[in-house]
Write a structure and sequence with these properties.
coiled coil, UMP-CMP_kinase_2, nucleotide-binding, nucleoside diphosphate kinase activity, Rossmann fold, 9 helices, nucleoside monophosphate kinase activity, globular
């Protein structure tokens, strides 16, 4: 917190989260995928159709600090996104007592990015399918359904260019390193 003042606020929010969140009676649906695969469009449409609640990762209460933590060393950045998953789980637990919950990214994105950055070499060098790195954290609220959206790589690049937004570090790495994208 001395080096990154925002860390204290994130940790304060995390401490307020119940230790084991329980899902309410409504379904929790997660949409995963790279940038420009249609998550925003699909999640909004599903939210409207189901008269649900739309949540995003990282959650709104900490998303303003994303750029701060994205410039930090990998372990600190990873801790920020992990904390975000637990804060989001607390929001999911509360919202799912009132309506269906639609989520734009969750633990899967954090895990996929971590695995891809920690693995060097080819896709064959990834941990085997049954490895514990792929196991859902026991203390994190589980969704009812997870959907992975994909799109042709050329179409995805076209969509990103059409947005005219500045590339994130992750997006630049995905574009420059096809091996990283495969992992």
């Amino acid at each position: 917190a001395e080096r990154i003042p925002e860390a204290e606020a994130v940790l304060d929010l995390l401490e307020k989260c119940p230790e084991h969140q329980r899902k309410g009676g409504f379904p929790v649906i997660v949409f995963e995928g790279l940038d420009a695969t249609g998550k925003t469009t699909v999640t909004q449409a599903v939210k409207d159709t189901l008269n649900g609640v739309l949540l995003r990762s990282p959650p709104a209460c900490i998303s303003q600090w994303r750029t701060v933590f994205d410039d930090e060393p990998t372990l600190i950045k990873r801790a920020f996104y992990a904390a975000g998953n637990y804060i989001l789980a607390s929001e999911i637990a509360k919202a799912s007592t009132q309506a269906p919950v639609i989520i734009d990214r969750y633990w899967h994105s954090t895990a996929a990015y971590t695995i891809a950055t920690e693995t060097s070499g080819k896709v064959q060098d990834l941990p085997p399918a049954q490895d514990e790195v792929y196991q859902w954290p026991e203390d994190l609220l589980k969704p009812d359904l997870v959907l992975l959206l994909t799109v042709d790589p050329e179409e995805r690049v076209r969509r990103l260019q059409h947005r005219g937004l500045e590339k994130t570090k992750e997006e630049a790495e995905l574009e420059a390193n096809s091996l990283f994208r495969q992992r």
